[in-house]
Design a protein that fits this description.
The protein is an alpha/beta fold and about 325 residues long. The chain folds into two domains: about 10-115, NAD(P)-binding Rossmann-like Domain (Rossmann fold, 3-Layer(aba) Sandwich); about 115-270 and about 290-320, Dihydrodipicolinate Reductase, domain 2. The chain is about 35% helix and about 20% strand. The longest helix has 20 residues, at about 295-315. It comes from candidate division KD3-62 bacterium DG_56.
């Protein structure tokens, strides 16, 4: 694993320790103290990034800060390593294209960590869409809410933006997957309303039109209070001619309120992280592209960038018109 800057790295490391046919052997980080701490916690070696790239490790999970993904993924590709990159894949189109091209040129696979595709309720809704159970789909309403994570997530130079870049990508990917269609127009209202001292946005509302005529809205706001669980509030409502389905992606939870600890959701049932990493490992073993690609990551990034540009221009924009 390369970096534990993103909190999802902790779950991925836990999962790797239990994944058949895979072993977490090395943790590399530019922060030596963090590297040693995480390596001791997960029973791995603590190396520098250079040592990791020069090793015989086959695949690397990149969980660095958003704006550093591109350089890290390109370095991994040039070292001949397959890569699972934390979302968002990139914060610019140019970086996303550079990552995809580097992996293709090196003959290695690139996957984006869109774990929401593996949530059991989400997957069942996808099956209903694919099976025609909803009839013709007219509209979609989706949310990805959470607390303001603080730290580098609130620094534009490292995060690339705020709530909109942090939370939109998961849901934008789900909508493309559900609808089997690409966004053609994005209109967004983006602001900083809840945490006035931030340098990045903390709320927004996106309206997206797809090639197949479906309209969708996404609310990606950091609108939950500080005591709320930081992750696990993804909902999707699909309106069709024959049925409407409302999905709570993380509905299978125990809600725990501790005396001295923040509230948390303890998920039961299949782990989306375990299913995603299992698919990634299986694909590498078979010499196949993992189900979620770098291109999927780039498409979601394009929606985010179109949203920011739309909010600035106060008019709808076409993601395809954005330039690197």
């Amino acid at each position: 694993m390369l970096s534990f800057a993103h909190m999802h790295a902790l779950s991925y490391a836990d999962v790797l320790g239990e994944t058949p046919d895979a072993q977490l052997v090395v943790i590399a980080d530019e922060n030596p103290a963090s590297c040693r701490e995480m390596a001791a916690r997960f029973g791995a070696e603590a190396w520098t990034i250079e040592q990791l790239l020069n090793s015989d490790v086959e695949a690397i999970v990149v969980c660095s800060e958003n704006t550093r993904h591109a350089d890290h993924v390109v370095a991994c590709a040039q070292a001949g390593k397959h890569v699972l990159c934390e979302k968002p894949l990139a914060t610019t189109i140019a970086d996303g294209e550079r990552m995809i091209e580097a992996c293709a040129r090196a003959g290695v696979f690139l996957s984006t960590a869109f774990v929401c595709r593996y949530l059991p309720p989400i997957r069942r809704a996808w099956e209903m869409c694919r099976g025609g159970e909803l009839g013709e789909i007219f509209a979609v309403k989706a949310t990805n809410h959470g607390t303001m994570p603080g730290g580098w997530f609130a620094q534009k130079s490292l995060a690339g933006g705020g709530a909109v870049v942090d939370h939109t990508v998961h849901v934008a990917d789900l909508l493309r997957w559900f609808l089997d269609s690409e966004p053609v127009s994005v209109y967004a209202e983006i602001d900083r309303l809840i945490h006035a001292d931030l340098e990045v946005d903390d709320c927004g509302m996106l309206t997206i039109e797809f090639e197949n005529g479906v309209f969708a809205t996404i609310d990606p706001s950091w609108s939950r209070p500080g005591g709320y669980p930081f992750w696990g509030d993804v909902t999707v409502t699909l309106v069709g001619s024959d049925a409407t389905v409302a999905v709570d992606g993380f509905g299978q939870v125990l809600t725990v309120h501790g005396r001295d600890a923040p509230s948390q959701w303890v998920h039961w049932g299949s782990s989306c992280d375990a299913l995603m990493i299992g698919d990634f490992v299986a694909a590498i073993e078979k010499g196949q592209q993992p189900p979620i690609t770098g291109q999927d990551g780039l498409r979601a990034t394009q929606v985010v960038l179109a949203a920011y540009a739309s909010a600035e221009a106060a008019q709808p924009l076409k993601p395809a018109d954005l330039r690197p």
